[in-house]
Amino acid sequence: MVLFTIAIIILAVILLAVAVYAVMQKDLLFATIATGIISLILSVMFFLLQAPDVALTEAAIGIALTTIIFVITIRNTSRREDEVRITEESQAAEIDKKIKAKI
Fold first, then answer.
1. Across the chain, which distance is largest between two alpha carbons, in Å?
2. Across the strands, what pairs with 80?
3. What is the per-residue pLDDT across 81-103, written as a single tens digit (0 to 9) for each?
């Protein structure tokens, strides 16, 4: 029983560390991979807590489906937060030039 409690606590600490990493990460792909790792840890925790049906559901949806959808979305958009800012700034500069040209 003590070993079980220690295992759950260790998994919870790792889960918290990975969650903080995912939130602080600027690269969206790495953040998405971190959320997949979070789902993997949760699946293991659910299995240890004798909820195999919830563990399988978390594995199927959390690890596989959600991560794949996020990776495809990131691939089709910009990957880093900095790239989005540069694009927005360049679009704003273009609009500003067009407005000044009309005046």
1. 77
2. 27
3. 655 556 666 777 777 787 888 77
> Length of the chain in residues, anyone?
103
Question: In the 8-state DSSP scheme, what is residue 38?
Answer: H
Amino acid of residue 39:
S
The answer to whether 88 and 65 are in contact (CB under 8 A) is no
Task: Tell me how crowded residue 74 is: count the other CB atoms within 10 A of its CB.
Answer: 16
Residue 34 CB contacts under 8 Å (≥ 6 apart), including other chains: 18, 19, 21, 22, 25
Q: What's the start-to-end Cα distance of the chain, in Å?
A: 77
Total-model pTM: 0.72
Instruction: Report CA 91 to chain centroid distance, whole Å.
Output: 28
In 5-66 the beta strands, taken as DSSP E runs, fall at none
Q: Which letter does DSSP use for residue 50 in this model?
A: T
Angle subtended at Cα 86 by Cα 83 and Cα 89, rounded to the nearest 5 degrees? 150
Other C-beta atoms lying within 10 Å of the C-beta of residue 36: 20
